[in-house]
Amino acid sequence: MPYNKEMSDTRWPKDVGIIAMEVYFPSQYVDQEDLEICDGVSKGKYTIGLGQAKMGFCTDREDINSLCLTVVQRLMERNQLSYDSIGRLEVGTETIIDKSKSVKTVLMQLFQDSGNTSIEGVDTVNACFGGTSALFNAVNWIESSSWDGRYAVVVTGDIAVYAKGNARPTGGGGALAMLLGPNAPLVFERGLRAIHMQHAYDFFKPNLSSEYPVVDGKLSVQCYLDALDKCYKRYCDKVLRNGLEDVVSLEHFDYICFHTPFCKLVQKSVGRLMLNDFLQESNPDTDEGCRYAGLDAFRGIKLEDTFHNKEVEKACVKCSKEQFEKKTKPSLLLANNVGNMYTPSLYGGLASVIASASLADLVNKRIGLFSYGSGLAASMFSLRVSSDASVGSRLYKLKASLDDLNKRLDQRKCVSAKEFTALMDHRERTHHLCDYTPQGSIEDLFPGTYYLTQVDHMHRRQYQRKPLVDFEQTPSPECNTYLLSSPPSKKPVRNHIKNTMVSVVNEVVN
Ligand code: ACO
Fold first, then answer.
1. Which residue among 6, 238, 378, 469 is least crowded, i.e. fewest CB within 10 A of its CB?
2. In whole angstroms, what is the distance from residue 510 CA to residue 502 CA?
3. Ligand 1 within 6 A of 166 CB?
4. Which residues belong to the active site?
5. Is the pLDDT at 14 greater than 60, yes or no?
6. In a 10 Å sphere around its CB, with 0-12 CB exposed, 13-18 middle and 19+ buried, how is residue 375 labelled?
7. Whole-angstrom Cα distance, residue 63 to residue 103?
8. pLDDT confidence bin for 470, thresholds 50/70/90
């Protein structure tokens, strides 16, 4: 049924979307230049060729459960939310440590004190797309007859690690939680969700005892670009059908974020959208200084014949440079500094835009998003930023909560490529062991981070939380070094250690 604005205004809650976001990334990273030297590849391959500066990684102290515990608890704390205000919680991840028990059920421990067990949703899996599917589920729930007026929380999280070799520099890791509800500052545009799904063996994880995927890198890039073409076409068709524009092109978006396996692919993707626009036009202007300058030789070319055509790629990247700089580069802050976080990658791009742009540059803007998960599942959709940026508004608060991203990135510890490789080898040897005590440093973790203390003989996992010291109270890296290495607070500590297998909250109270 076509989108019906009248129906939307009367039957559905208004402005459903993202109200708050919380980003968590590991407290250590490896420098990609150092990794180039250590891996013996030519200088510039990872930094210029792939466009990556730093790669975050986790030691054996963190797993998918701990990442999600950390990010959800921080989302709740920083937004002063009560645990009984949540009616749906789901997790998108491809980091599987249990074939049956969902991460969502582990997160239910955070709700224990509130007594709230009436919470829909479980985990959703398909490579980097699981988070998007979880997000769509949450939006659908809020717009359905099942909605009971409470918030939804969507958690995306992954540890993205590859075996030694050419894919390893495209790893990363982290988690991102989103609070959803009506009257949001980032509103999902109704009727504009485009989907492409297909069977492909481009990247998959058939070896259940290994953290590493099997990856056909070149095929995965081709599948990504093909999915982008298809989703963009379908998205544009929906915009036209809904009568929002007469002609749709890149101009439709003020910002556009992509799933980001590595930054160079995203720059090429903007070029790819420009190629799509060019091929759609009946008489595109390719003269010097015009929109499609440099593309004249490619009139009538078929999109499917261009995936490996470096000439087309270069011309499109050049021609779309201005659009890329303005609309997409601000989204690459986290991807460039943390790497591919898998399911959180796209939403890390969104958080980066909010953090990088001024409030004035955000109000009333349209943000396009392209989600891709190998195997494959993909979508293009868009968000409209609210027009209310007044002090204390939800947009104001969302932006304020993300303004410390750069500072937090600077507070991480740089680990040498040699040490990183040793830590990866250790992770590889100890992955999925039972009766295991992790070895990684607790001191190096950010305050407020949950970490794994023990995996018992039945593979049951126990976690503790590092006492929380607000990031806002850590004005400089030097100060943070002190905080990270300081002994545990002597203030009274309230332990909510339940008679379950996991102790989840170890919070400092005044
Ligand atoms: N200086 C500058 N650039 C260089 C240098 C150098 N010294 N050496 C190489 N390059 C360039 C190359 O020309 C190439 O750029 P181009 O593609 O624009 O021509 C780029 O660096 C990468 O070099 P390749 O030889 O193509 O890299 P390789 O094939 O070794 O690996 C790949 C790249 C396939 C992306 C690999 O890292 C991988 O498999 N990653 C995981 C899969 C992935 O991320 N897929 C994306 C979608 S699916 C997902 O999200 C998981």
1. 6
2. 24
3. yes
4. 94, 128, 259
5. yes
6. buried
7. 10
8. low
The pick from 55, 95, 166 for probing ligand 1's pocket by mutation, whose C-beta has the most ligand atoms within 8 angstroms, reads 166
Helix, strand, or coil here: 38? helix
Maximal C-alpha separation, the chain: 72
Contact between 228 and 272 under an 8 Å Cβ cutoff? The reply is yes
Calculate ∠ Cα 293-297-301, nearest 5°: 110
Residue nearest (by alpha carbon) to ligand 1 atom 50: 261
Q: Is the CB of 220 under 6 A from ligand 1?
A: yes
Q: How far apart are CA 106 and CA 373, in angstroms?
A: 24
Judge whether 225 and 261 are in contact, CB under 8 Å.
no
Name the E strands within 349-435: 366-373, 377-385, 413-415
The C-alpha atoms of residue 448 and residue 384 are separated, in whole angstroms, by 32
Which of 216, 311, 313 is CA-nearest to residue 269?
313
> How far does CA 167 lie from the centroid of its chain?
19
**Ligand 1 close to Cβ of residue 112 (< 6 A):** no
46 lines ligand 1 (CB under 6 A): no
Q: Is 320 in the pocket of ligand 1 (CB under 6 A)?
A: no
Enter the CATH code of domain 22-505. 3.40.47.10
pLDDT tens digit string along 259-310? 999 999 999 999 999 999 999 999 999 999 999 999 999 999 999 999 999 9
Q: Which atom number of ligand 1 is nearest to the Cα of residue 268?
A: 18
Q: How far apart are CA 212 and CA 247, in angstroms?
A: 44
Residue 494 CA to residue 147 CA, distance in Å, equals 35
Atom of ligand 1 nearest to the CA of 43: 7
162 CA to centre of ligand 1 in angstroms: 14
456: β partners? none
Please state, in angstroms and rounded to a whole number, the distance separating the CA atoms of residues 342 and 133: 13
Indicate the pLDDT class of residue 476, thresholds 50, 70 and 90: very low
Q: Residues 239-269: pLDDT tens digits?
A: 999 999 999 999 999 999 999 999 999 999 9
Among residues 467, 503, 471, the alpha carbon closest in space to that of 113 is found at 503
Q: What is the C-alpha end-to-end distance of the chain, expressed in Å? A: 55
